[in-house]
Design a protein that fits this description.
Length: 292
């Protein structure tokens, strides 16, 4: 197995009509890669959907496997993950991109594919991922397959936003074929279509301690940072002032910046920066941004 994988057909594993199913080859390759001479002690598949992992287990003659999903009565949010596993494969819903309620023909309030705010989805996914991690045997692995989502022009990177439990051992990019969105006609298509999924493999390398890694996004005003040049502050100010401003107008804004706090010559600094950068041009008494 290498860090980029591509499977043009999904193979004869599970229900090919189950929406959002994955190829069995990826599960097979993972197991054969990590357990080349033996079999996993216990293989568990979470979010088993249309039975892909079960057919892989059958083909590899793994008899000690479990395949759990709401559609066979097991709920990842409230159910216990059976313990004693050294290999867990999970393939959660990609937020609410595909609804599994209609496939099952029944509503479950804990279905991770229900319509919900993104933060709530990430929180629920984190709960499941932490339970998966703790259930692993020391030395065991959790391989999670998940894609990114674009919604109303906003890009959501689930792997970046979810919490990571344990040590990342591999990050594999899987080429994605036959998405439902392939047939969609986009009227504003100046974006790059998502044609890949991520397969992250986490390993439990310690018995008592584990790493919990998460991304913290905070919005910061550039007026509050010092690691910014005067040139960049002036560029932002000119854009804010509709690209036409006197030195006084620029000064009145930037004098309140964090960068100005320790500078007794802010006005001179602004004048110098305007004069020495070719992207700033004086037209009559006003300064404009003119990108060369
Ligand atoms: C992307 S699909 C998995 C597809 C599967 N890998 C296959 O090849 O068919 C995600 C699955 O998560 C299941 N699911 C969603 N919320 C769940 C929950 N709370 N507990 C258990 N399964 C859940 C859905 O029923 C669905 O089958």
């Amino acid at each position: 197995m290498q860090s980029i994988v591509s499977y043009k057909d999904r193979g004869n594993f599970g229900d090919s009509k189950y929406r959002g199913n994955c190829t069995g080859y990826i599960i097979k390759d993972l197991i054969q890669h990590f357990y080349p001479t033996s079999k996993p002690k216990k293989f568990i598949e979470i979010f088993s959907g249309g039975g892909t992992g079960k057919d892989v287990a059958k083909e590899l003659n793994i008899t000690n496997s479990l395949h759990l999903d709401l559609n066979n009565g097991w709920d990842a949010l409230i159910g216990e993950i059976p313990s004693g596993s050294d290999f867990i494969f999970s393939h959660p819903p990609y937020w609410d991109i595909i609804s599994y309620e209609s496939q099952r023909n029944s509503y479950s309030e804990n279905d991770l594919s229900n319509k919900m705010p993104y933060e709530e989805f990430i929180h629920k996914l984190d709960i499941v991922n932490e339970k998966i991690y703790h259930s692993l045997l020391y030395g065991g692995r959790h391989a999670i397959l998940i894609g990114d989502v674009r919604k109303q022009r906003k890009y959501y990177s689930i792997i970046k936003d979810m919490t990571w439990f344990g040590d990342l051992e591999s990050h594999i990019i899987k080429a994605q074929y036959n998405c439902v969105s392939d047939n969609k006609v986009y009227y504003n298509n100046n974006f790059i279509p998502i044609k890949h999924e991520h397969l992250l493999v986490f390993r439990k390398n310690k018995i008592w301690l584990f790493n919990r890694t998460y991304t913290n996004t905070i919005e910061i005003n550039i007026m509050q940072v010092t690691n910014i040049t005067w040139r960049d502050l002036i560029q932002a100010t000119l854009q804010y002032l509709k690209n036409e401003a006197t030195i006084d107008e620029i000064y009145n804004i930037l004098v309140r910046s964090k960068k100005a706090e320790n500078n007794n010559h802010v006005r001179e600094k602004i004048r110098q920066t305007l004069n020495y950068n070719s992207n700033f041009k004086k037209v009559n008494s006003k300064w404009v941004l003119e990108i060369k």
